[in-house]
Write a structure and sequence with these properties.
By secondary structure, this protein is α+β, with helices and mostly antiparallel strands. It has one domain: BirA Bifunctional Protein, domain 2 (2-Layer Sandwich). Helix content is 26%, strand content 32%. The protein contains five helices and 14 strands. The two termini are 24 Å apart. Pfam families: BPL_C (PF02237), BPL_LplA_LipB (PF03099). It comes from Pseudoscardovia suis. GO terms for molecular function: biotin--[biotin carboxyl-carrier protein] ligase activity.
Length: 299
């Protein structure tokens, strides 16, 4: 275990190999952060290799050594904000902070940052290719005097992948030349995300309702979903196709269907329909899928 001093967090550990950063963060950090005297503590766990990363629907994947940003950001917030009507914003907030951090790195290397976008609600994209994703989990709830909950944001980003594991996957080094060595880039990215996440989680906790319009504005500005044709599979198996119109105050995605109906999607798989080239018909195959907006899971 290594403990770097460059990360803007109350505690940070770096491990060589883990099965899952979220699982390891729950084991190592959830009890400690619950007892932390800081009002809004932030802990970070980083790993160089992951052998059994967890995604939505129980999916697992492996990440080779020094190829991906493998992280879990751990916060303690009031239980009502972790489980209530506004909790769908937690994953979106983490997505905003990850995309803004990636854009900062691209800009630093002279690359147009607008290629990097947030696909509702939890994926980071370079144009129509996936750079990474987020799995948000509710790790613990304390019902004593504080009535707080521990929330873990598992953030994974492809940095130096030599191969494309799926047809829509990509890696940051394919688009941004001159990136520093893996440990330097990993620490820089962790620092940038931690700085933003600390501020945004505090704003969310101190005034969820007043901060939501600002989060919605940032998410919309970063979105590669709004205005795009999308395909959504809803709970129960119903599939709709239409155009993503807006992000609602509850973090749901509003879609205008092909029939003209307005549907607010709070949970389900949402994929981007590839944009047709001039003279071609739009493809019916959606690119990628998204985690439910309200998919905080108690582990």
């Amino acid at each position: 275990m290594r403990v770097p001093d460059v990360i803007a967090a109350d505690r940070c550990v770096v491990l060589d190999t883990v099965e899952s950063t979220n699982t390891q963060a729950r084991k190592l950090l959830s009890e400690t952060i619950m007892a932390d005297e800081n009002r809004f503590p932030l802990y970070v766990l980083l790993a160089d290799e992951q052998t059994g990363g967890r995604g939505r629907l129980g999916r697992t994947w492996m990440s080779g050594r020094n190829t991906s940003f493998l992280s879990s950001f751990v916060v303690r917030i009031p239980t009502a904000l972790a489980t209530g009507a506004t909790s769908g914003w937690l994953t979106t907030i983490a997505g905003i902070d990850a995309v803004e951090s990636l854009r900062s790195i691209a800009r630093e290397h002279g690359v147009d940052p607008s290629h990097i976008g947030l696909k509702w609600p939890n994926d980071m994209y370079w144009d129509d290719c996936k750079l990474g994703g987020i799995l948000t989990e509710l790790a613990a709830v304390h019902t004593g005097l504080t009535d707080d909950a521990v929330v873990i944001f598992g953030i994974g980003i492809n940095l130096f992948l030599s191969d494309r594991p799926t047809r829509i996957a990509t890696s940051l080094h394919r688009h941004v030349p001159g990136l520093p060595a893996y440990p330097v880039l990993r620490n820089e990215l962790a620092q940038l995300i931690a700085q933003r996440l600390r501020v945004d989680v505090q704003h969310y906790c101190e005034g969820a309702q007043s901060s939501i319009p600002r989060f919605a504005k940032r998410a919309t500005a970063l979105s590669c979903t709004i205005g795009r044709r999308v395909s959504a599979e809803l709970p129960g198996g119903t599939r709709i196709t239409g155009t993503a119109i807006a992000i609602r105050p509850n973090a749901a995605l509003e879609i205008r269907t092909n029939d003209g109906d307005m549907v607010s999607v709070t949970a389900g798989d949402v994929g981007l329909i590839p944009q047709a080239m001039p003279g071609q018909e739009p493809s019916a195959n959606a690119a990628g899928s998204a985690m439910p907006a309200h998919s905080l899971r108690l582990g």
